[in-house]
Amino acid sequence: MEAYALLLAATLNAGTVLALAALGLLINEKAGIVNLGAEGMMLCAALAGFATVVHTGNDWLGFAAGMGAGALLAAFFGVLVIWLNTNQYATGLALSLFGVGFSAFAGIRYVQEKLPPRPQFAIPGLSDWPFVGTALFRQHPLVYGAVLLAVAQIVFLYRTRAGRVLRAVGESPESAHALGYPVRRIRFVAVLAGGALCGLAGAYLSVIYTPLWVEGMVAGKGWIALALTTFATWRPARVLLGAYLFGGVTMLQFHLQGLGVDVPSQVLTMLPYLATIVVLALISRNPTWIRVNMPASLGKPFFPGS
Question: Could you list the residue ranges that cross the membrane (predicted)?
Answer without folding.
Answer: 6-26, 33-54, 60-84, 91-111, 141-158, 188-207, 213-232, 239-257, 263-283
